[in-house]
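Write out structure tokens for Coronin-like protein crn1.
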Amino acid sequence: MIWKIPERGPTANVGHTLFRPTADNILLSASADYTVKIWDISTGQQRSELANVYADLIQGLPFNYNGTLVATTCKDKKFRIFDVRTGAIVNEINGHQGIKGSRVEWLGSHDKFVTTGFSRSSERQLFVWGHANLESGEPLKNETVDNASGFLIPKYDNDTNMLYVTGMLSEYKSQGFTPSVSAAALVTTRTAEISSPSRPSSFDSRAPVISEKELHDTLNSLRRENNELKLQVNSKDARIRQLKAKLEQLKAFS
């Protein structure tokens, strides 16, 4: 026998997979049959399925900070938020109205998320939404970026409170840094804020308060501590415990 094809598992092409951040072995998958299923990879069995409300391809699938909610974007131009413990839909709102796809990203421990997409006139857009204010159907902030054709992909770093947006640009620029990092006193870059033009900012390239190894050890400790909770799909809300002493040192990076 050369190949053994398992009889269980997804029955259509899988476009997205995502581990639940606060539970071991819990995986979400979004498939071309317009379903989102929850799996236990330790047993290979399907645990549950989100409410089947889709009639088109799912394009984004991120968890919120404590792993209780998942936001989705779809080719039908709607954003939906589900409670993964029950599979029920919590919110459904109209999103970017362009014919191209959209993306979504939760803003870490903040009860907000950001979406990127296109307007009817093919302008690239970036919206910031408040989960508590979704009933209004209006974003807290909206920004028109440019008329380039490429997707904008948002990624949020909760440790530094920085939102990174990547994608094809209308122009390309580069900036050189001093090759000897240890000898550089300051590094200058540019920070873009939604409500204001880009502005230069400087920071110390060497952080004497905490080393790179201590930083990674701290983050790994947080992840291990969260995994020890061993939350299941139907668990109650979990507040992620923080290592306060170390996190005080991490403020030097913000």
